[in-house]
Design a protein that fits this description.
By secondary structure, the chain is α+β, with helices and mostly antiparallel strands. Helices cover 14% and strands 27% of the residues. It is elongated, with a radius of gyration of 22 Å.
Length: 215
């Protein structure tokens, strides 16, 4: 089974226009750009557009994975709770001549829009090329393996695969996460000690293998 792709909140927030719109909710990251194109010009897109690039978990019941509901005090009927206004695929409160039931699942239950998972904890690392002394700070997902972090780093060094990755002198297992390689996340401890975490960002050292065939 393929591993899911993890995203940082910063990566999600970069997709914040109608032409490129992502949201996250309940741990999932969804690309709603096709939905925006399909319903282009529909006023029911407005609540979604207002939250482009943001986490909208507050819209949902984490147990049912559905939109929150409430009992309307006037009708005593259960309704969807949409304080920002009704949005695409949410039925109206009462009968409407302009409402047609959707075919298939609503967008928040449609796996076609899912592009990955939102990281539960991001962390910063320093990647230092010992050959060139180049240092690059990277924000990564705690769930990512070193192989996946390497993919993030390729934009800065296209030959990153030709290096051995080490921490404190130990060769890192690229199939494991940072924590599984004993590169622990000490953010909480540093916060409790009121220390600047930027001064204690763990360093990953890259040692050149003298082989560019993997670049």
């Amino acid at each position: 089974m393929d591993r899911p792709k993890y995203f940082t909140p910063a990566e999600v927030s970069a997709h914040n226009t109608a032409a490129d719109l992502w949201v996250s909710f309940l741990g999932k990251v969804c690309d709603l750009t096709p939905l925006m194109e399909q319903h282009k010009g529909d006023n029911l897109l407005l609540p979604i557009m207002q939250c482009a690039g943001k986490d909208i978990s507050s819209w949902f019941n984490p147990e049912t994975k559905d939109i929150l509901r409430y009992i309307d005090p006037l009708t005593n009927c259960e309704q969807y709770y949409t304080p920002r206004g009704r949005f695409v695929h949410v039925p109206p409160a009462g009968p409407r001549s302009d409402w047609t039931s959707i075919k298939g699942p609503p967008w928040w239950k449609d796996e076609r829009y899912e592009v990955g998972l939102l990281s539960t904890k991001t962390r910063w690392i320093r990647v230092i090329n010992t050959l060139t002394s180049q240092e690059q700070r990277l924000q990564v997902c705690s769930e990512e393996t070193l192989d996946e972090i390497l993919q993030r780093y390729l934009r800065y060094n296209s030959h990153a695969c030709s290096y051995t990755w080490k921490h404190d002198g130990d060769i890192l297992d690229m199939s494991l996460t940072l924590s599984e390689n004993n590169v622990f996340d000490e953010d909480q401890e540093l916060q409790q000690l009121r220390l600047d975490r930027d001064l204690f960002t763990p360093a990953i050292l890259l040692h050149f293998n003298d082989d560019l065939t993997e670049g």
